[in-house]
Amino acid sequence: MTYYDLSIDKYLQIKEALENAEDDLNTQVTLLSIINECTEDELLDLPLAEYHKKAADLAFLSEPLSPRPNCPKTITIDKEVYEAVRDVKQFTAGQYIDYNTLIKSEDFYSVIPNILACFFIPKGKDYGKDYDIMEVAKKIRHNVSIGLAMDVCFFFQMKSIRSINNMLDSLVLMTKIKMRKASKETRPKMKEAVEKIQQLRDSFNAGLGGTMWMRSLKH
Questions:
Q1: CA separation (Å) from 45 to 41, 48, 51, 126?
Q2: SS in 3 state form for 110-168?
Q3: Mean pLDDT in consecutive groups of 10 residues from the start of the chain, 219 residues
Q4: Can you give the pTM of this predicted structure?
Q5: What's the Cα-to-Cα distance from 115 to each of 32, 48, 109, 166, rounded to whole Å?
Q6: Sign (positive/negative) of CA torsion 55, 59, 61, 62?
Q7: How far apart are CA 210 and CA 84, in angstroms?
């Protein structure tokens, strides 16, 4: 089993169980009940060998969830196709506002289904029209894996990073071109401006390691 076999909903339940853990054995039973969708009593009634076999399925949880930038063009839930808006420039104003509000949430993981509902739209429909966004978020929560969800979030953050870096690089290039025609008096100030832009870019990229989506998920 991997994070790509684990729904967002089950991941959130597991996250909560780990945060409230008191001892390893009872927590293990709780996690197995979540993954296997059964009661803790049903697990405790299993033969020991069968219980150990199920417990081995939890091994992947000891590894961090390391997202990769990936966003499928479509996903299918309950035979309904949802198309991805893979370019934020194609967002409607409402879509963009919803997305920016959600990514600022203090409890990022709990709103992941809602974030994905900003990207995945029922085929043939416009964002928020003729369908219930919250219902889509609910379906995503129970049917999309936490692995894919984090991949999608990472995909859009990486696109934002590239966009910002391209903008800063363009500013540096434009300033350097203007420096060639500038007077000797103004060149030092323009050179200083270039250095500040480059420092800003380096600082921005160096700080990414501490952001929510750039970090590997750890328990």
A1: 6, 9, 9, 50
A2: HHHHHHHHHHEEECCCCCCCCCCHHHHHHHHHHHCEHHHHHHHHHHHHHHHHHHHHHHH
A3: 93 90 85 93 93 90 84 94 88 87 85 94 94 96 94 78 56 68 75 68 51 41
A4: 0.73
A5: 28, 41, 10, 25
A6: positive
A7: 27
